[in-house]
TrEMBL record:
Subcellular localization(s) per the UniProt record: Cell membrane
The keyword Cell membrane appears for this protein: yes
Keywords associated with the record: Cell membrane, Membrane, Transmembrane, Transmembrane helix
Keyword Membrane tagged: yes
Organism: Cryobacterium sandaracinum
Topology within the bilayer: Multi-pass membrane protein
Descriptive protein name: APC family permease
Lineage, uppermost ranks: Bacteria, Bacillati, Actinomycetota, Actinomycetes, Micrococcales
Classification via Pfam families: AA_permease_2 (PF13520)
Membrane-spanning ranges: 26-48, 68-86, 107-135, 155-174, 186-207, 227-247, 267-289, 309-329, 369-388, 400-422, 434-455, 467-491
């Protein structure tokens, strides 16, 4: 047994656990399995994600969309199983940061936490922007005034409205998990009901013979290897991984769940499973109703690919089409609020273990939430959005494209951390499957996609086609994000070296700390 080092970031009354892990003063026992699963689904934002991803996926792989969703689901499930094992052994709000530190040491652990923070903060800004777009679209539909939808193109109005959404979401998150849970129940239930309604209505129109360009169902749709080319296959898989991203928020709440060792992992697996079933249902229904042609409502029509539901809601749902606008709005708003959970708790943990400035470790005495970290996440996300919105929407689009690499990076690091941490306790078939094979295969898949995307992004035509000196802007943005993290890590190392010297969180393995099955 290695020596334990109480975290110097601990608050009075917190206990120190194995390897230096310690509680942070969050509201324990406030979330059950249902609440954690609902928040997980909310963070993925299925209505928002699907309306933006159905078209591009069809453009890449055609009718193989369900098969590509299946391929994207596999590494997510495998990595989720690894996350669950790590959480069972070490329930800590820092998740990727904490677990990678315990397995590999402070340097890679810090970068794992940085990857999660960068990805979620950038997505926060994008979600707020989508919420603004659908807010004004909803007003235009409700009031019968199409010109209201154009208000989103006014930069000042857009940025200020985004600020309102961001403040509201930040406030709900600041008030802790009880308030977050209550809001999410309503918003998530509504978007799931509307998505199922849309799918059933589309299938009924196919049966009635009133579909736009009906396709007969084919089992071949689920064979991803029938994709037009390997490049198309890789592009589709990269996109499908992004649409499943967000389930790990269930793990960042582990110190606030009713059973920290089992509830978060079960919620993560349940979340991924529910989302997969929903995606397949919607994908099949959309293909059967619209086809993949370039007609008015065809999924191959470039004019509707950026927002498929806005185009299909009318012909599929008739007078109830406005419900789809409300669903996408509620989806982006719900995800905006729930996505605060991840970066806030990661920054809280990094502050708690002295990997970030001590101020990030502060907890609201009233709401038992990561007060300062939540507010900082909101400020940075809104500032990022405001700057990018003023400069160029293409810059924002390219930045979002880099998220695939950040996701693959910190998910992959966590998957390999599971393999390495449990390397001495692979006793029995279950342990070999869940602690070795599942996370190892998932991590390798993510590593391949990361390397492929990084290489492809160097092409000046990648993404929006923007480039600097003949190098793709997406590659440059990814490089800046990684180098920025390294610089901040070195600064923190010079200011407060305790974490990097292993004094606040120790490196170890499951055998050394008694986590053998």
């Amino acid at each position: 047994m290695t020596s334990q080092h109480p975290s110097s970031g601990s608050t009075p009354g917190t206990s120190t656990l194995t390897g230096g892990l310690s509680e942070k003063g969050l509201s324990a026992g406030s979330i059950g399995l249902l609440g954690a699963t609902v928040i997980g689904i909310s963070c993925i934002a299925p209505a928002y994600t699907l309306t933006a991803s159905l078209g591009p996926t069809v453009a890449a792989v055609g009718t193989q969309m369900p098969g590509i969703f299946l391929v994207g689901f596999i590494p997510m499930l495998l990595v989720a199983l690894g996350y669950r094992e790590l959480n069972n052994a070490m329930p800590d709000a820092g998740t990727s940061f904490t677990w990678a530190t315990r397995a590999f040491g402070p340097w890679l652990g810090w970068m794992g936490g940085w990857g999660l923070i960068v990805a979620t903060v950038v997505v926060l800004s994008n979600l707020a922007g989508v919420a603004v777009d659908f807010f004004y679209l909803m007003l235009a539909q409700l009031l019968g005034n199409p010109s209201l939808a154009d208000l989103t193109n006014n930069v000042v109005i857009n940025v200020l409205t985004c600020l309102v959404f961001m403040v509201a979401a930040c406030y709900v998150s600041y008030r802790g998990m009880e308030t977050t849970k209550a809001v999410q129940y309503v918003l998530v239930a509504f978007q799931l009901i509307v998505l199922v309604w849309f799918s059933v209505a589309a299938l009924l129109r196919v049966v009635e013979g009133t579909a736009f360009d009906a396709l007969a169902f084919s089992a071949d749709w689920f064979n991803p290897f029938l994709a037009p080319s390997f490049s198309a296959f890789a592009a589709g898989v990269s996109l499908s991984i992004f649409i499943f991203w967000g389930w790990d928020v269930t793990l960042t709440m582990n110190e606030e769940t009713k059973n920290p060792k089992t509830t978060p992992g079960r919620a993560a697996t349940l979340t991924v499973g529910i989302i997969f079933a929903l995606y397949i249902l919607v994908a099949v229904a959309a293909l059967m109703f619209s086809g993949i042609g370039a007609g008015e409502f065809g999924l191959g029509n470039e004019e509707i690919q950026g927002n498929v539901f806005a185009a299909l809601a009318g012909p599929v749902m008739g007078p109830f089409a406005i419900l789809m606008s409300l669903a996408v709005l509620s989806s982006s708003a719900a995800s905006l609020q729930s996505t605060f959970v991840g970066p806030a708790r990661t920054m809280l943990s990094m502050g708690h273990y002295k990997a970030f400035p001590k101020r990030f470790a502060s907890i609201s005495p009233r709401y038992k939430s990561p007060a300062f970290a939540t507010v900082m996440a909101g400020i940075v996300a809104w500032g990022f959005y405001a700057i990018m919105r003023v400069l160029s929407t293409d810059v924002l689009t390219d930045t979002i494209l880099t998220l695939g690499m950040m996701i693959c990076f910190y998910y992959g690091v966590t998957a390999f951390a599971c393999v390495w941490y449990f390397r001495d306790s692979l006793n029995g078939p279950r342990a070999i499957l869940l602690k070795l094979l599942a996370p190892l295969i998932g991590g390798v898949i993510l590593l391949v996609i990361f390397a492929t995307t990084l290489y492809d992004s160097m092409n000046p035509d990648y993404g929006s086609g923007s480039n600097i000196g003949g190098v793709g802007l997406v590659f440059i943005l990814a490089k800046v994000l990684f180098i920025g993290g390294l610089v901040l890590m070195l600064i923190q190392r010079s200011v407060n070296p305790a974490f990097f010297q292993g004094k606040t969180l120790t490196k170890g393995s499951s055998k050394e700390h008694g986590h053998v099955e």
